[in-house]
Structure prediction request, 295 residues.
Amino acid sequence: MATYSLALGLFFLDAESDARHDPVAALESIAAAGFSETELMAEGDEWQQPGLHDAGPYRDALERFKIFPNTIHTPMSGVNLASSVEEIRCDSVARIGDAMRFLGELGGRTAIVHPTGSPTPEESPYELENIGAAAERIYRSVSELVTVAAETGVRIALENLPNTSLPCRPLKSMEELRAFIAGFPPEQVGLCLDTGHACISGLDPAEQARIASERLYALHIQDVDGQNDCHWVPGHGVIDWSALGEALSAIGFDGAWTIEALAGRTETTAEQVAAECAALSERWEAGGMSNPGEG
Prediction:
Protein backbone atom coordinates (compact mmCIF):
# COMPACT_ATOMS: atom_id res chain seq x y z
CA MET A 1 0.00 0.00 0.00
CA ALA A 2 1.26 3.49 -0.85
CA THR A 3 2.34 5.82 1.94
CA TYR A 4 2.05 9.35 0.65
CA SER A 5 4.66 11.95 1.51
CA LEU A 6 4.23 15.72 1.50
CA ALA A 7 7.24 17.64 0.19
CA LEU A 8 8.73 20.08 2.71
CA GLY A 9 8.81 22.78 0.03
CA LEU A 10 5.12 23.56 0.58
CA PHE A 11 5.93 25.16 3.95
CA PHE A 12 9.63 25.92 3.35
CA LEU A 13 9.53 27.96 0.13
CA ASP A 14 8.11 31.46 -0.14
CA ALA A 15 5.77 32.75 -2.86
CA GLU A 16 8.73 33.17 -5.24
CA SER A 17 9.89 29.57 -4.56
CA ASP A 18 12.92 30.77 -2.58
CA ALA A 19 13.98 28.99 0.61
CA ARG A 20 12.98 31.55 3.24
CA HIS A 21 11.19 29.72 6.04
CA ASP A 22 12.28 27.64 9.02
CA PRO A 23 12.63 23.97 7.99
CA VAL A 24 11.90 22.72 11.52
CA ALA A 25 8.67 24.71 11.62
CA ALA A 26 7.89 23.31 8.18
CA LEU A 27 8.28 19.77 9.56
CA GLU A 28 5.81 20.59 12.32
CA SER A 29 3.34 21.78 9.69
CA ILE A 30 3.82 18.56 7.71
CA ALA A 31 2.94 16.55 10.83
CA ALA A 32 -0.02 18.81 11.64
CA ALA A 33 -1.40 18.07 8.16
CA GLY A 34 -1.40 14.35 9.03
CA PHE A 35 1.61 13.14 7.02
CA SER A 36 4.17 10.70 8.42
CA GLU A 37 6.65 11.04 5.54
CA THR A 38 8.28 14.01 3.84
CA GLU A 39 10.84 14.99 1.24
CA LEU A 40 13.45 17.27 2.75
CA MET A 41 14.91 20.12 0.72
CA ALA A 42 18.59 21.04 0.55
CA GLU A 43 18.04 24.67 -0.37
CA GLY A 44 18.83 27.95 1.38
CA ASP A 45 21.95 29.63 2.72
CA GLU A 46 23.13 26.64 4.73
CA TRP A 47 23.38 24.55 1.54
CA GLN A 48 25.47 26.97 -0.52
CA GLN A 49 28.66 25.24 0.61
CA PRO A 50 29.19 21.67 1.85
CA GLY A 51 29.35 21.16 5.60
CA LEU A 52 27.46 24.25 6.75
CA HIS A 53 24.33 22.44 7.95
CA ASP A 54 23.62 20.60 11.19
CA ALA A 55 21.55 17.42 11.11
CA GLY A 56 20.81 17.62 14.85
CA PRO A 57 17.80 19.97 14.75
CA TYR A 58 16.31 18.01 11.85
CA ARG A 59 16.82 14.70 13.66
CA ASP A 60 15.19 16.03 16.82
CA ALA A 61 12.22 17.44 14.89
CA LEU A 62 11.72 14.29 12.83
CA GLU A 63 11.68 12.20 16.00
CA ARG A 64 9.41 14.63 17.84
CA PHE A 65 6.88 14.86 15.01
CA LYS A 66 7.22 11.17 14.04
CA ILE A 67 8.08 11.88 10.40
CA PHE A 68 10.22 9.66 8.17
CA PRO A 69 12.48 11.57 5.71
CA ASN A 70 12.10 9.10 2.86
CA THR A 71 13.73 11.43 0.32
CA ILE A 72 15.68 14.66 0.03
CA HIS A 73 15.67 17.03 -2.90
CA THR A 74 19.35 17.77 -3.38
CA PRO A 75 20.50 21.35 -4.13
CA MET A 76 19.22 23.01 -7.31
CA SER A 77 20.38 26.64 -7.04
CA GLY A 78 23.70 27.05 -8.84
CA VAL A 79 24.01 23.29 -9.38
CA ASN A 80 24.66 21.74 -12.78
CA LEU A 81 26.11 18.24 -13.18
CA ALA A 82 26.37 18.89 -16.94
CA SER A 83 28.30 22.14 -16.59
CA SER A 84 30.99 22.89 -19.17
CA VAL A 85 32.85 24.77 -16.42
CA GLU A 86 34.70 22.12 -14.42
CA GLU A 87 34.71 24.16 -11.22
CA ILE A 88 30.90 24.41 -11.30
CA ARG A 89 30.53 20.72 -12.12
CA CYS A 90 32.81 19.66 -9.26
CA ASP A 91 31.10 22.02 -6.81
CA SER A 92 27.73 20.60 -7.89
CA VAL A 93 28.90 17.04 -7.22
CA ALA A 94 30.22 18.09 -3.79
CA ARG A 95 26.98 19.84 -2.77
CA ILE A 96 24.78 16.95 -3.91
CA GLY A 97 27.04 14.45 -2.16
CA ASP A 98 26.78 16.55 1.00
CA ALA A 99 22.99 16.34 0.88
CA MET A 100 23.18 12.57 0.39
CA ARG A 101 25.39 12.21 3.48
CA PHE A 102 22.96 14.43 5.39
CA LEU A 103 20.02 12.18 4.47
CA GLY A 104 22.08 9.13 5.40
CA GLU A 105 22.61 10.58 8.88
CA LEU A 106 18.84 10.89 9.22
CA GLY A 107 18.11 7.36 8.00
CA GLY A 108 16.51 8.38 4.70
CA ARG A 109 16.49 6.32 1.54
CA THR A 110 16.64 8.28 -1.71
CA ALA A 111 18.20 11.53 -2.98
CA ILE A 112 16.38 13.29 -5.81
CA VAL A 113 18.94 14.73 -8.22
CA HIS A 114 18.53 17.09 -11.16
CA PRO A 115 20.86 15.74 -13.88
CA THR A 116 21.11 19.18 -15.48
CA GLY A 117 20.81 22.81 -14.46
CA SER A 118 20.18 25.99 -16.42
CA PRO A 119 23.56 27.13 -17.83
CA THR A 120 24.84 30.53 -16.70
CA PRO A 121 26.41 32.97 -19.20
CA GLU A 122 29.85 31.52 -18.43
CA GLU A 123 28.72 27.99 -19.34
CA SER A 124 28.01 26.53 -22.76
CA PRO A 125 24.26 26.43 -23.51
CA TYR A 126 22.72 23.09 -24.45
CA GLU A 127 22.67 22.76 -28.23
CA LEU A 128 22.28 19.83 -30.58
CA GLU A 129 25.97 20.11 -31.40
CA ASN A 130 27.10 19.69 -27.77
CA ILE A 131 24.32 17.75 -26.08
CA GLY A 132 26.38 14.54 -26.26
CA ALA A 133 29.30 16.22 -24.47
CA ALA A 134 26.89 17.47 -21.81
CA ALA A 135 25.60 13.92 -21.29
CA GLU A 136 29.17 12.69 -20.88
CA ARG A 137 29.75 15.26 -18.13
CA ILE A 138 26.58 14.14 -16.38
CA TYR A 139 27.81 10.55 -16.57
CA ARG A 140 31.11 11.54 -14.96
CA SER A 141 29.25 13.42 -12.23
CA VAL A 142 26.88 10.56 -11.45
CA SER A 143 29.82 8.13 -11.43
CA GLU A 144 31.40 10.24 -8.71
CA LEU A 145 28.15 10.33 -6.75
CA VAL A 146 27.83 6.53 -6.93
CA THR A 147 30.77 6.42 -4.53
CA VAL A 148 28.77 8.53 -2.07
CA ALA A 149 25.74 6.27 -2.56
CA ALA A 150 27.83 3.21 -1.70
CA GLU A 151 29.26 5.01 1.35
CA THR A 152 25.93 6.24 2.73
CA GLY A 153 23.38 3.67 1.58
CA VAL A 154 21.38 6.54 0.03
CA ARG A 155 20.44 5.84 -3.57
CA ILE A 156 20.28 8.43 -6.36
CA ALA A 157 17.07 9.10 -8.31
CA LEU A 158 17.63 11.23 -11.41
CA GLU A 159 14.60 13.42 -12.14
CA ASN A 160 13.12 14.14 -15.56
CA LEU A 161 13.25 17.87 -16.29
CA PRO A 162 11.35 19.92 -18.89
CA ASN A 163 13.05 21.92 -21.62
CA THR A 164 10.30 24.51 -21.87
CA SER A 165 12.71 27.37 -21.04
CA LEU A 166 15.69 25.98 -22.96
CA PRO A 167 16.22 25.29 -26.70
CA CYS A 168 17.15 21.70 -25.85
CA ARG A 169 18.07 19.72 -22.74
CA PRO A 170 19.69 16.31 -22.27
CA LEU A 171 17.90 13.54 -20.37
CA LYS A 172 14.42 15.06 -20.29
CA SER A 173 12.52 11.81 -20.89
CA MET A 174 12.46 8.41 -19.22
CA GLU A 175 13.58 6.87 -22.52
CA GLU A 176 16.80 8.88 -22.34
CA LEU A 177 17.23 8.50 -18.58
CA ARG A 178 16.60 4.75 -18.55
CA ALA A 179 19.25 4.23 -21.23
CA PHE A 180 21.62 6.61 -19.44
CA ILE A 181 21.54 4.73 -16.11
CA ALA A 182 21.69 1.23 -17.62
CA GLY A 183 25.34 0.76 -16.66
CA PHE A 184 25.00 2.01 -13.09
CA PRO A 185 24.26 -0.38 -10.18
CA PRO A 186 20.47 -0.51 -9.63
CA GLU A 187 20.92 -0.46 -5.86
CA GLN A 188 22.55 2.96 -6.20
CA VAL A 189 21.04 4.74 -9.22
CA GLY A 190 17.42 4.96 -10.35
CA LEU A 191 14.85 7.48 -11.50
CA CYS A 192 12.33 10.00 -10.18
CA LEU A 193 9.28 10.73 -12.32
CA ASP A 194 7.93 14.25 -12.00
CA THR A 195 4.43 13.98 -13.42
CA GLY A 196 4.14 17.69 -14.21
CA HIS A 197 7.51 17.84 -15.95
CA ALA A 198 6.54 14.91 -18.15
CA CYS A 199 3.21 16.46 -19.09
CA ILE A 200 4.55 19.90 -20.05
CA SER A 201 7.25 18.19 -22.12
CA GLY A 202 4.51 16.58 -24.21
CA LEU A 203 4.97 13.15 -22.62
CA ASP A 204 2.42 10.82 -21.03
CA PRO A 205 3.27 10.33 -17.32
CA ALA A 206 1.74 6.84 -17.33
CA GLU A 207 3.85 5.74 -20.29
CA GLN A 208 6.91 7.34 -18.74
CA ALA A 209 6.33 5.29 -15.56
CA ARG A 210 6.13 2.08 -17.59
CA ILE A 211 9.41 2.93 -19.34
CA ALA A 212 11.15 3.64 -16.02
CA SER A 213 9.75 0.35 -14.71
CA GLU A 214 11.77 -1.26 -11.90
CA ARG A 215 14.30 1.60 -11.91
CA LEU A 216 11.60 4.06 -10.79
CA TYR A 217 12.47 4.89 -7.17
CA ALA A 218 10.45 8.05 -6.51
CA LEU A 219 7.53 10.15 -7.70
CA HIS A 220 6.96 13.89 -7.68
CA ILE A 221 3.19 14.04 -7.85
CA GLN A 222 1.92 17.40 -9.12
CA ASP A 223 -0.70 18.56 -11.60
CA VAL A 224 -0.25 21.11 -14.38
CA ASP A 225 -2.21 22.99 -17.03
CA GLY A 226 -0.25 21.30 -19.83
CA GLN A 227 2.12 24.22 -20.41
CA ASN A 228 3.42 25.48 -17.06
CA ASP A 229 5.15 23.82 -14.10
CA CYS A 230 2.19 24.61 -11.83
CA HIS A 231 2.74 22.26 -8.85
CA TRP A 232 -1.01 22.02 -8.29
CA VAL A 233 -2.72 19.40 -6.16
CA PRO A 234 -3.75 16.50 -8.42
CA GLY A 235 -7.19 17.06 -9.89
CA HIS A 236 -6.70 20.75 -10.70
CA GLY A 237 -4.95 20.16 -14.02
CA VAL A 238 -4.90 17.88 -17.05
CA ILE A 239 -3.03 14.75 -15.92
CA ASP A 240 -4.86 11.41 -16.12
CA TRP A 241 -4.26 10.03 -12.62
CA SER A 242 -6.22 6.82 -13.19
CA ALA A 243 -3.91 5.91 -16.08
CA LEU A 244 -0.85 6.67 -13.97
CA GLY A 245 -2.19 4.59 -11.11
CA GLU A 246 -2.68 1.62 -13.46
CA ALA A 247 0.87 2.01 -14.77
CA LEU A 248 2.36 2.16 -11.27
CA SER A 249 0.43 -0.95 -10.29
CA ALA A 250 1.64 -2.76 -13.41
CA ILE A 251 5.30 -2.09 -12.65
CA GLY A 252 4.90 -2.84 -8.93
CA PHE A 253 6.11 0.59 -7.85
CA ASP A 254 7.20 0.64 -4.20
CA GLY A 255 9.20 3.87 -4.02
CA ALA A 256 8.42 7.28 -2.55
CA TRP A 257 4.97 8.72 -3.33
CA THR A 258 5.73 12.42 -2.81
CA ILE A 259 3.09 15.06 -3.41
CA GLU A 260 5.07 18.11 -4.53
CA ALA A 261 2.36 20.77 -4.34
CA LEU A 262 3.07 24.45 -3.76
CA ALA A 263 0.89 27.34 -2.69
CA GLY A 264 2.91 30.25 -4.07
CA ARG A 265 1.29 30.11 -7.51
CA THR A 266 -2.28 29.95 -6.20
CA GLU A 267 -4.52 32.08 -4.01
CA THR A 268 -4.71 29.38 -1.32
CA THR A 269 -2.55 29.11 1.79
CA ALA A 270 0.00 26.38 2.40
CA GLU A 271 -2.27 25.01 5.14
CA GLN A 272 -5.20 24.78 2.73
CA VAL A 273 -3.05 23.02 0.13
CA ALA A 274 -1.79 20.59 2.78
CA ALA A 275 -5.35 19.80 3.89
CA GLU A 276 -6.35 19.10 0.29
CA CYS A 277 -3.28 16.89 -0.17
CA ALA A 278 -4.16 14.97 3.00
CA ALA A 279 -7.73 14.36 1.83
CA LEU A 280 -6.47 13.25 -1.57
CA SER A 281 -3.91 10.85 -0.11
CA GLU A 282 -6.55 9.28 2.13
CA ARG A 283 -8.82 8.74 -0.88
CA TRP A 284 -6.01 7.29 -2.97
CA GLU A 285 -4.77 5.07 -0.14
CA ALA A 286 -8.27 3.65 0.20
CA GLY A 287 -9.18 3.25 -3.46
CA GLY A 288 -6.05 3.74 -5.54
CA MET A 289 -4.92 6.67 -7.65
CA SER A 290 -7.88 8.08 -9.60
CA ASN A 291 -9.26 11.18 -11.25
CA PRO A 292 -11.78 13.47 -9.50
CA GLY A 293 -15.21 11.85 -9.38
CA GLU A 294 -13.81 8.33 -9.84
CA GLY A 295 -13.19 5.65 -7.25
